[in-house]
Amino acid sequence: MTDDKPLGTQVQQWVSFGASVIAPVTVISALLFYFGYVSSRSEYAYFGIDVDAVGLSTQGYVMRSPQVLLVPLLVLGLVGAGFLVINSGVRGRIALRLNRVGEGDQGDDPGVESRAHVERIRRNLRRAAIAGLVILVGGVVLLFAYPYVRSWSPYPLVTPLVIAFGATLAAYAWSLGNFVRRLESAPATTDAKTAGPVGVRSTPADANLMARRTAAVLIGVVIAASLFWATATIAQWTGRGLAEYQARHLDSLPSVILDTKERLFLRDPGITETLLPSSDGQTFHYRYRGLRLLIDGQDRMFLVPAHWSASDSTLIVPLDESVRVQFQFQNQPP
What is the spatial distance between Cα 253 and Cα 169, in angstroms, rounded to a whole number? Predict the structure, then answer.
């Protein structure tokens, strides 16, 4: 069976499909790179290194991001799944109550009781919306109070989470309020099972439709930015935690024996300097032991002492003819 569509139409379809695939992949790759960079920057800053001096590639930062994003993704996944379950139950219960109100319009007791429940639902939604706005304002106050509370270590995580929670609570209460109004505007015979957000008929457009949509978009931006901030903070803390763990287990890093032509005057604890015997053709005169390979970058190595001290320094060694490097190992015999 041949395709009768013009060639130009087929090309446009393929371009549209490619754009729909490439755009999300590009965004995801950019996010992975950013969080990997934030974590690596915090990790190597602990050892006094600017991560830009290491010269890691884009792929290197992306490969470091899964360890950073594991906990945030698990938490977001669990919270999202719980929200979907709770939201389904809440909307179903509201739809059932409103359906009973419609059935009880003739004055029977179930209708009166159900209307009381609906009024209680409205009051609870208003309270939830007000509580969300109060929490959101509290987060904004924390945001502008940064010069006074910058020394509070949990600040960069608590502030975005408070803002995100307040905005989410207010937006959800607002959404449920719109859901109640849509159900009330639907025919009284609407079945409770089809009274969900898909089966409800849309309300007529009004003058405030654009304002409501704009507000919804802005709230979404606030929530997304807050979660981004919180995740970046977690990435920074993760990098610092990895560095502190590495500092406590420097013996797990490769052991390096460094020979140099000139004396390096290293004074870090645990590093030993040995004068090599002179001989014909010998160009290296000093040997240094007690070094560990922290990371290797573009034609250079970053070495740290084998024993951690707060006064240690990181040695940058170029991989050229000016040095000779040996990697020492101690394994069990095969």
Answer: 47
